[in-house]
Amino acid sequence: MSALTDAFTGMLFGKAETTRLPVRTSTGQAQAVYLPTAAPGLGDSGVIIGREVYSGKGYIYDPFQLYGQQLPAPHWLVLGESGNGKSALEKTYVLRQLRFRDRQVVVLDAQGEDGVGEWNLIAEALGITPIRLDPMAAIEQSIRLNPLDPAITATGQLALLRTIIEVAMGRGLNERSGFALKVAHAHVVETVTQETAGRQPILSDIVERLRHPRPESAHAMNVAPEDVRAWGLDVALVLDRLVDGDLRGMFDGPTTVGIDLDAPLTVFDLSHIDRNSIAMPILMAMVGVWLEHTWIRPDRKKRIFLVEEAWHIINSPFVAQLFQRLLKFGRRLGLSFVAVVHHLSDVVDGAAAKEAAAILKMASTRTVYAQKSDEARATGQVLGLPRWAVEIIPTLTPGMAVWDVNGNVQVVKHLITEAERPLVFTDRAMTEGSPRAPAELEEELPPLALDAGPVSFDKRYTR
User: Fold this and answer.
1) 60: which strand partners?
2) How many CA atoms lie within 13 A of 229 on its CB side?
3) CA–CA gap between residue 119 and residue 104 (Å, rounded)
4) Would you call 394 exposed, middle or buried from its count of C-beta atoms within 10 A (0-12, 13-18, 19+)?
5) Has this prediction a pTM greater than 0.85?
6) Distance of CA 326 to the CA centre of its chain
7) Is residue 406 within 8 Å of 71, Cβ to Cβ?
8) Taking residues 195-215, what's their average pLDDT?
9) What is the maximum alpha-carbon separation in the chain?
10) C-alpha–C-alpha distance, residues 114 and 134, integer Å
C-alpha cells in the first residue's frame, strides 16, 4: 500500500524527496551553514550589565570570575563623552556588585552639584556618610587623612611625601632635597613616637624639622647643618601649603576618627576640590597610598577601586607611578581598579605618556561609549579595537557601548532597573545624564533590593 501511494504521488507531483539521515557536526562547522550565529559571551557567572545588541543575550561581566581564565588582569577602563551613560554604568555596576557580601568598593567622586558629590544618593540609600574632603571647610569640621598615619609603613610614608611634593612642584626631587626630606622624616617618626605616646606624627612636625635639621643628620654626611636646611627649604615651603596655606585642612592633622573602611561602600567626595587645581592629583596620590596601606588586605574579599576623572592619575607621572604599583600589588589581593576617562587623547598625549601606556596595558577590560569619529579612530588605534568596532563608536546611542574584554568585543546595551533609576538619574543633571533614564534603558530587569544578600537576577545570567 505504501509503495502504491508513493507511485501515485510521484505521478501527480513528481519524484518524492529522498529521506535524509541526520548528520552529527560541531558548532564550529555548523556556523558556516547557519550564518546568523552569535559570538560567545563571557559566561553566566557574575553580574548582569545588559544585553548584547546583535544576539539579544544577557551580557554578564565580573572581573573576579573571569580573572585567570579570560582576563590577565581585573582592571577596567571606561571611556566616552559626557551624556552617553558612563555614570549610569558605574553606579549600577557597583550596586549590583554589592549584592555579594564578599565585595567592598571605594569611589573617588570628583563630580557633583548642590554641594554634594553625585554618589551622595547611593551612599544615603546604603546608610553611608561620604568622606567629604574640602579645603574650604571650617578647620574643626574638616576630614583629614594623615600622610604620616602609623597605619602606613615608614617606607610608604616617605614615598607618599615625595609624591605630594613632586606633584606640587611639577618636577622630581633632586638628591639633596630628597636627603633633607628623608632625614627629617626619620627623625620625626622616631622622636614623636617615643616622646608623645598616643599622638600621630603630622606634617607640621616634618616642616619644623626641615627648618631646623638636627646636627647629627648633617654630620653623618659630612656637611654643615646650614646646607641641609638650604636643601630642604623648597620641600618645607611646599608642605607648608598643606599645613597653613590654601590646601590646609585635609592632610595637616591626625586621620579623622570614625572613617570606616570595613563598610561595603566608601565614598571620598572630592566635588569641592577644583578639578584643575594642584590639589586634585595630590588628593589622588594621598588617597591611593592611604588605601593601599589601610584598606587592601589579604582577607579574601574582592575590592573595587573606582576613580572618576581618572586623568588626574594617569596624566601625572608621579601619581601614575604610585598607581602602577598599587595595581600590580592589588592584583594579587583581589583588587579591580576602574578608571573613568572622557578622552583617551587627554592621557596618551599628556606629560605621563609612558606611565599612561603602562596603566592602559593593565586594563584588560575597555568599555567605549560614543565618541566623535576622529577620537574614535585614535582610541581604536591605541586600544587595538577591530575596524568594525571603531566605525560603530560614533553611531552609538546613550546607554550603548563597545565592550572589549581581552579581545572579546561586543556591542552592549546597558539596562537599568526601576529601583536603580532614581539613584542613577537625578534632577541635579549629574553632568552625565538626564533627570530620567532614556526609554531604551528602562527595560524589564527585576527590581534590585539594596539590602539583599547574594540574589540572582536570573539563574541563567548570574551566579
Assistant:
1) 48
2) 9
3) 15
4) middle
5) no
6) 12
7) yes
8) 85
9) 120
10) 14
Beta-bridge partners for 442: 416
110 vs 367: CA distance, rounded Å: 20
Strand partners, 131: 268
Beta bridge partners of 269: 109, 132
3.40.50.300, 3.10.20.90, 3.40.640.10, 3.30.40.230: which CATH number matches 47-143+260-441?
3.40.50.300
- Are 286 and 145 spatial neighbours (Cβ–Cβ below 8 Å)? yes
**Structure-block grid coordinates of residue 323:** 598607581
Among 310, 259, 306, smallest CA distance to 107 is for 306
How far, in Å, CA of 336 to CA of 233, rounded? 39
pLDDT band at 35 (very low <50, low <70, confident <90, very high): low
Angle at 98 between CA 96 and CA 104, to 5 degrees: 140
Which whole-number Å values give the CA distances from 52 to 33, 76, 402, 412, 446, in the listed order?
22, 19, 10, 5, 18
Instruction: Report angle CA 157, 251, 108 to the nearest 5 degrees.
Output: 90
Domain ranges of the chain: 47-143+260-441, 154-244
- Per the listing, cell 646636627 goes with 215
> What are the pLDDT digits (tens) for 210-223?
998 888 877 877 88
Tell me the average pLDDT across 115-128.
88
The reported pLDDT for the residue numbered 10 is: 60
* pLDDT digits 0-9 by tens, 426-456: 544 444 444 444 444 444 444 444 343 433 3
